[in-house]
Design a protein that fits this description.
The chain is mainly alpha-helical. The protein folds into two domains: about 325 residues, Up-down Bundle (Fumarase C, Chain A, domain 2); about 70 residues, Fumarase/aspartase (C-terminal domain) (Ribonucleotide Reductase Protein R1, domain 1). Helix content is about 60%, strand content about 5%. It has 19 helices and six strands. Helix 2 crosses helix 6.
């Protein structure tokens, strides 16, 4: 029986496999082995053979047997330990020595995050490349800027995309910076003192985590401190926010009355509506937006779960079976989906030009600037252009005639008026900004400029 849609509908198999029970149990066993080896190395326990434990990694922990034991013990980690002991024929007598459940659970989570980060950083790289291609191709393609949903000064489509690229560059920087704080484990026992392991407990903690390629907690209770998880989920939520921002823009610009971009639509087979066969809906962008909201929401229960009694309780446990796996799987899913949308995006350059040229007042900023440069005070110039604009809205006259009948006609000749009224001449430093952003992205990704 399938209940969660993430099982069949959402998420890439390779990423979902990181969070499957079989892989998690292997990560937990890796932690037990690493700690045991570190304890032997530092003289905490006698020399022993962890080989039989390592052999289990090849075939995996017996999940069915573990479930049987858990029904009796009502404790998943104790069921895990007994299952491993059975599978190894009790060959190693010091399994889980000096440890507590969350030493194993939290360090295994860090190993899963270590696997996940490979996909996440690649996802960010791929979407930066896709955005860069659009910035380069359309850095000089003029279009209407829009603020408050209304026509504003001209921009270029490349500049619009460059703003998103800039955000993803910062997401990459954030993830690189916080990675070490997330990939952190511990082997310090039930209250964080390492007491059962004696005077070399801190060495065991350090060496075990180093062998796993992780950082280690120093001062903590029973848990790896959850501020780490909160920071990570907030960062994923931030990435999801940018994905939704782009998806929302695509959806808006695909509206028929605008029609400046459109998602790829497979005309041969794709169906847009069960009732209206003509429709081409931006369903992929809508999917990205919908899941982005879910991703952001997971940061809230994680923050609530970070507040535990004393050295720990179980109020974080159940919710983290959802927050971490679902956030990671869905973030990867929408990043790869959005990358595909961007790679196949239809950009209607002709419609961008048509919409731009059919909006004469998009140059009102330039008109105000030119009046000011002629010696009229900025506030007075602003009011004059505002009055001209209101007259244009109210009547049937074209903007050029209205301008000639105003003070503009006394200050500028017709050629000057035509030049300052041309939106194609008022895109500012759009192209140069695009170039700088492309250069910054190449440097960030380690490519030659």
């Amino acid at each position: 029986m399938t209940i969660s849609p993430i099982e069949e509908r959402y998420g890439r198999p390779a990423v979902k496999s990181i969070f499957e029970q079989s892989h998690r149990l292997n990560c937990m066993l890796q932690v037990e082995i690493a700690v045991a080896d570190a304890q032997i190395k530092n003289g905490v326990i006698p020399q022993g053979n962890t080989g039989p434990l390592k052999d289990i990694l090849k075939d995996g922990v017996n999940e069915e047997r573990m479930k049987e034991i858990e029904k009796e013990t009502k404790h998943d980690i104790m069921a895990f330990i007994r299952t491993v002991e059975e599978q190894s024929n009790n060959a190693f007598k010091f399994l889980h020595f000096g440890l507590t459940s969350n030493d194993v659970i939290d360090t295994a989570t860090a190993l899963q995050m270590k696997d996940y980060f490979v996909y996440l950083m690649n996802d960010l790289n791929e979407i930066q490349v896709a955005l860069s291609h659009l910035v380069e191709k359309y850095k000089k393609t003029p279009m209407l800027g829009r603020t408050h949903g209304q026509h504003a000064s001209p921009i270029t489509f490349g500049l619009k995309i460059a703003t998103y690229l800039s955000e993803f560059n910062r997401h990459t920087e954030r993830m690189r910076e916080l990675k070490g704080r997330i990939l952190t484990g511990k082997a310090l026992g039930p209250v964080g003192t390492g007491a059962a392991m004696g005077r070399n407990a801190l060495k065991v903690n350090r060496d075990a985590m180093a062998s796993l390629g992780l950082n280690y907690e120093i001062a903590t209770g029973q848990l790896v401190d959850r501020d780490r998880y909160v920071e990570f989920l907030q960062a994923l939520g931030n990435i999801a926010m940018t994905c939704e921002k782009i998806g929302t823009e695509i959806r808006n610009l695909q509206r028929p009355e605008i029609f400046e971009v459109m998602e790829y639509f497979e005309s041969e087979t794709q169906v847009g509506s069960s009732s209206m066969p003509s429709k081409r809906n931006p369903i992929e962008s809508e999917n990205v937006c919908s899941l982005a909201r879910m991703i952001r929401s997971f940061a809230v229960p994680e923050m609530e779960g970070a507040i535990t009694w004393h050295e720990r309780d179980l109020t974080n446990s159940a919710l983290e079976r959802f927050t971490l796996p679902y956030s990671c799987i869905l973030t990867d899913f929408i990043l790869t989906k959005l990358t595909k949308i961007l790679r196949t995006l239809y950009v209607n350059v002709e419609k961008m030009m048509e919409n731009l040229l059919s909006s004469p007042l998009c140059v009102s900023e330039n008109l105000t600037a030119q009046l000011t440069l002629k010696g009229i005070g900025r506030t007075e110039a602003h009011e004059l252009v505002r009055l001209v604009s209101m007259k244009f809205y109210e009547g049937n006259e074209n903007l050029h005639d209205i301008l000639m009948q105003s003070r503009f006609g006394n200050l500028f000749d017709e050629e000057e008026l035509s030049r300052m009224s041309n939106p194609l001449g008022f895109i500012g430093s759009s192209s140069e900004i695009c170039g700088l952003m492309l250069k910054n992205t190449k440097e960030l990704l380690g490519e030659p400029s």
